[in-house]
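User: Last request for today: this protein with nicotinamide-adenine-dinucleotide, please.
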Amino acid sequence: MSNLPDSRTAIVTGAASQRGIGRRVAERLAGLGWNLAIIDLDGGAAADTASALAERFGVCAAGWGADVTDQAAVVKAIDDAEKSLPPIVGLANLAGISSPTPYLDLTLEEWRRQIDVNLTGVHIVTQRAARSMVSHGVGRIVSISSISAQRGGGTFSKTPYSAAKSGLIGFTRSIARELGHFGITANTISPGPIDTDIMGGQLTEERKQSFISEQIIKRVGTPTDVAEATSFLMSDGAGFITGQNLNVNGGQYMS
Ligand SMILES: NC(=O)c1ccc[n+]([C@@H]2O[C@H](COP(=O)([O-])OP(=O)(O)OC[C@H]3O[C@@H](n4cnc5c(N)ncnc54)[C@H](O)[C@@H]3O)[C@@H](O)[C@H]2O)c1
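Assistant: Here's the final one, the structure of the complex with nicotinamide-adenine-dinucleotide:
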């Protein structure tokens, strides 16, 4: 069994948003001793997040501005990270965008952007990161899908988001199979609605109540709920879990 090295780096995409899940995942991982390579569209915020977490947790961290759909930019960022940080053996794919447009009003442009960011972007980052993990003989990949993939929308985001997030589950099962013999695990997490700004800004009390009414656990999901699940799947102890989808949804959907 391959163990994660004591000195190790995780790439976290989409960790620049102050109230976002990615930021909380990066915090949790840094708290557990992971060094961080943060990749986000917003390069300034990625760098600020990295330096704040480096100072707070005493780890090495750096941020890069890159669109996850731009393969050259992603490869350059991870090449740089590889030169300046300890071995890259973790990846948390958080970068994502929402799409509230009803299906009959959807343009082809919006469809393509959803699939590009939420699915192809994950592939681009994962493929480059997996090449590093293969060289170290161990790795943990976690990608954030959504309850929307399982229920057929029914949340803020609609059809192309749901299609991309469903694609992520199939993508993850397939790479789990292909990469397992290199000591790499790959899993998805499917959160229910989480209190961030991705659903068009801060959630109103009314929206929170409508989410809660469908759940068994009577509170709104938080970035911490997803960060705890992500850090578990990235731990040494989760080395026998691969190709799985973990629901973090307060019991809103069971499978
Ligand atoms: N919030 C929820 O209710 C919820 C539920 C299920 C799944 N998710 C998923 O969790 C992930 C994080 O969501 P969040 O709520 O924290 O969103 P958020 O909007 O707060 O953060 C998303 C982050 O991704 C970055 N990003 C967007 N497009 C990018 C691109 N092309 N390249 C690089 N970075 C990019 C943004 O700059 C931002 O920092 C997303 O994949 C989302 O689909 C969220």
